[in-house]
Specification:
Two copies of one chain form a homodimer. Chain A is an alpha+beta fold. Chain A has a single domain, classed as Orthogonal Bundle (Arc Repressor Mutant, subunit A), CATH 1.10.10.10. The first copy, chain A, has five helices and three strands. The first copy, chain A, has a three-stranded antiparallel beta sheet with strand order 1-3-2. The longest helix of chain A is centred in the C-terminal third of the chain and has 15 residues. Chain A is elongated, with a radius of gyration of 17 Å. The relative contact order of chain A is 0.13. The structure holds a DNA duplex.
Chain lengths: 110, 110
DNA sequence: TGTATTCATCGTAATATTGCAATTAATAAA
DNA sequence: TTTATTAATTGCAATATTACGATGAATACA
């Protein structure tokens, strides 16, 4: 039905999936990479840097902000975006614990 | 238009996004967690373990296989799935390089 | 040879996501 | 005040994803 049944999963499973989903689009990867490089960037610069419309960039920024990965300072009519390093590390670590898990016992069949 | 414009992104950006997308659904997180725990598991067990139909589980397994995260051995009428540890580590490391990047210069505004 | 079991695939329906044009809101500058 | 600039929001269209029932393919067992 296209509707993810979030209620049958654990908190951790839903949180991991939500975090991963934020990185699951090349536009958001590109935005994050650019912000890491310049570490201070207004929305308009991102529109020029990446080949998408201002409206679309704004939507992707919103998703990244919802996860707490970005923070922004208002500078006149523009907003300067940066990576929220502290939160980035929290989110990043949470995902990396999952990525670094090992099998509890060696496989007997494969 | 609902169509991701992959051609405007770098190889790396597309690859990172594809990897992240595989982890971007709680059912796939749950499947991977279970496989890590028991390290050998047929599809039917996953259907019981997770509350989804056999058809849906099979679809999710396909996506994980496409990324090379799983390998399977045929055992009679059933298939035994395991984590492909070597490939898991390749994929995992690729994503973690991205997650562990640092800003090149300190932000001046945020 | 059936029959049962197990997983894959197909068809479908519904929700989610992506992308953009148009509009709105807010501030700066004239 | 008016105009310009910048970003957010809204509304729409199209593609993508999720989920399941039905069906198909392959093997084990009788």
């Amino acid at each position: 039905m296209g509707l993810t049944k979030s209620e049958i999963y654990t908190e951790e499973q839903n949180r991991l999936a939500n975090i991963a989903k934020a990185f699951g689009h090349p536009a958001r990867v590109a935005i994050l990479q650019h912000l890491f490089k310049v570490n201070a960037c207004v929305c308009g610069d991102l529109v020029n840097e990446i080949g998408l419309s201002q409206a679309t960039i704004s939507q992707h920024l919103k998703e990244l902000k919802n996860l707490g990965l970005l923070k922004g300072n208002i500078e006149g009519t523009s907003i300067c975006y940066c990576i929220d390093i502290e939160n980035w590390q929290n989110v990043s670590t949470y995902l990396q614990v999952f990525l670094n898990q090992k099998p509890t016992n060696l496989g007997e069949c494969c």
